[in-house]
Each structure stands twice: as C-alpha cells, then as structure tokens.
Amino acid sequence: MLSDRLKQAIQLIKENHKDQARQLIISEVKDNPSNLTAWLWALEVAKNEKEKRTILDRILTIDPTHKGALQYLKKLGQTRSQDNEVKAKQLNPKHDSQREGEEKPSRLGGLLRLVFDWAFSLPASCGFLTLFFLILIGIFIYFRVNTSFFGLAGADFDSLVISNAYEKIESNDMYWEVQFEGTGESKYIGTVRHAAPIRIKEFAILTHDILVTTGDFANPEIVDTNVVDHKFIWKSRNVSAPSGSINLIHAIPANKDIYQTMLEIQKWDTVKITGREIYSVKAYQPDGTFLGTWQDMGCNTLLVESVSVLKGDSNQ
User: Fold this and answer.
1) Per-residue pLDDT band at 76 (split at 50, 70, 90)
2) Inter-axis angle of helices 49-62 and 67-75, to 10 degrees?
C-alpha cells in the first residue's frame, strides 16, 4: 500500500513539480529502504544518468529479476555493479544502520549471518552436526517464517498474466483456472495467530496461510491454536464453546503490492483482510496437462484485494 507521502509525491510528479516530489521520495526511501514502489518513482525525479544507475542498482537489490529495471539498465549501457549497496547510500544513508523497526528481510539476514558465523567457528569435528543443524534451520525458515528469502522464493508477480476477472492466471511454466464462490466481498478483521508461506510449486499463486482470530480464539490463555499442512487446529482447556471467530485464510494476492504487505504480517498483529472467496483453483501445464486442484475444507481461500496491518496486538 502506498503511504500518504508517496501518494503526494506521485501527484506532484503528474503536475510536473518534480523538485518537490523529489524531496518527498528521498524521505520515503530513507524511512522505508525496501519500498520497491518508492524506488521506481525515484527514477522519475533522478537528476542525472549516474543517479538513475544508482536507483536501478537499488531496485535490483530488492528484486534481482525486475524486468523493467533490467531493461532500463541495459538501455543505459550499464550492467549491474558489484557495489550497488554502497551507491544506494547516496539516497539512503540509513540502509545498513541497525535501528528499531528495520524491515524483516534485514532482521532475517542478520539472524542467518549470526548462525553461520557461529557454525563455522566450531571445530571441524562438529562439521556434520553443524551441517545438519543448518539444514533444519533452513527447512524451518523456508516453510514456517513469513519471508520471500530476499525475493528468491515466492510468487513472481512480474511474470504473471492475469485476466480482468482473475479467472485465469498465467506464468511462464503453468496456468491456473480460478472458480469463485460468488461476486461479493468478504472481510476478516482480527488478531493473527499464524502467518506462514505456502510453498507448493503447482500452486505458486497461493502465497500465505494467515490465521485470523477474534474473541476467545485470539487469547492464548483461553485457546491454543496450531496450523499443520494448511489446516488449523484449536483446543481450549477453559471453556467448552469459545466466543469469537477463527478463520484460516489461504491467500492469493491480487497484485505485487498486496503480496509485499502480506510479507510484513507477523503473529499477534491485528489485520484487516478483504477479498473474494475462491471455491477452487485448477493448475495446468502450458500444453493443457492437468496438474491438480486446490479446494479447501473448512478454511477460506481468498483473492486478497486489500490488506492492512496494525502491529503489536495486546493479546501477545
């Protein structure tokens, strides 16, 4: 979702007030250094070719496969430089600083570096145990931590071709037919008790499992919850019929911006998610070979059309 500051900058660009827009965009990328949309608009207010190359390097740091940036860079006659992080500091001096509220990919990267530094400091005789330990950590992060692995995992929205009604979605190596339950919009507001990626190759457009709860279901002192194999489980030791609601959302983001916002969701956040309920998703190879059907039982597969995140619910 666009911040008010970025919306104002875009409007100023459209009105040809680029100097004013430039100051707003510089502030935006300083405060949100991983905001891909802000860096793309920064190209519109760049002063010269050198600055454009710096911005393009930063875009490709966030999304190494961004087709538009790669084509733009090729047009400038420049391959991606090795020192793009250093150059990016010209517009974003806080990029490498340790600060409160830093983006989750940076926190995850710091944790991984810490683990690897610790592992490789062990004696050689511990090598096999260390390798096994690192593999287990990698598997856990891949399947249970809400991250795109710095853009290396997850859906590639830049390559998707989507019909106007979202009833057919195509990628380079497969396509999906989506059947909706109706034309109405569903809304889910509550406390997140599980946020993890969906990693199924045949259904790459399904990106997240988000467990949204209210009432007793949002209170860990009353109800225990768990999500296993894209199904939720709950139990209560205190009450026989907890009040409130519990919904496991299997998310298909409507666009890349919504997907990026969903990557920010953490356990105990309060969220508002709206979209269209999906009955089934059928996967095919480009030649029409049928790969399988996704159809949930007791959950909510949802084309997510908007999502808002409010950090730090009090039920933590």
Assistant:
1) confident
2) 150
The partner residues of 290 in beta bridges, in order of sequence, read 284
Q: Which of 264, 38, 271 is nearest to 147 (CA)?
A: 264
Return d(Cα 27, Cα 45) in angstroms, integer.
13
Q: Tokens in use for 225?
A: 């919850």
Q: Which helix (H) or strand (E) holds 138?
A: helix 127-144
Please say whether the beta carbons of 225 and 194 come within 8 A. Answer: yes
Return the closest-CA partner of residue 189 out of 119, 270, 244. 270
Q: Which of 44, 48, 57, 45 has the alpha carbon at shortest distance from 87?
A: 57
The whole-number pLDDT of residue 127 equals 57
Report DSSP state, residue 162.
E
At residue 315, the 3 state secondary structure works out as coil
Closest CA to 88 of 101, 97, 99, 76: 97
Nearest CA among 29, 38, 51, 48 for reference residue 10: 38
State which amino acid sits at residue 293. T
9 touches 24 (CB < 8 A) = yes
The radius of gyration of the chain's CA atoms, rounded to the nearest angstrom, is 22
66's tokens: 């961004």
Find the helix packing angle between 18-31 and 4-14, rounded to 10°.
160
What tokens were used for 35? 């905001």
Measure Cα distances from 300 to 45, 121, 210, 295, 304 in Å. Answer: 42, 46, 10, 9, 11
Region for 184 from its dihedrals, namely left if φ exceeds 0, alpha if ψ lies in -120 to 50, beta otherwise: beta
Side-chain half-sphere exposure of 136, counting CA atoms within 13 A: 6
pLDDT in tens, 143-195: 566 665 555 556 677 888 999 889 999 998 899 999 999 878 999 999 999 99
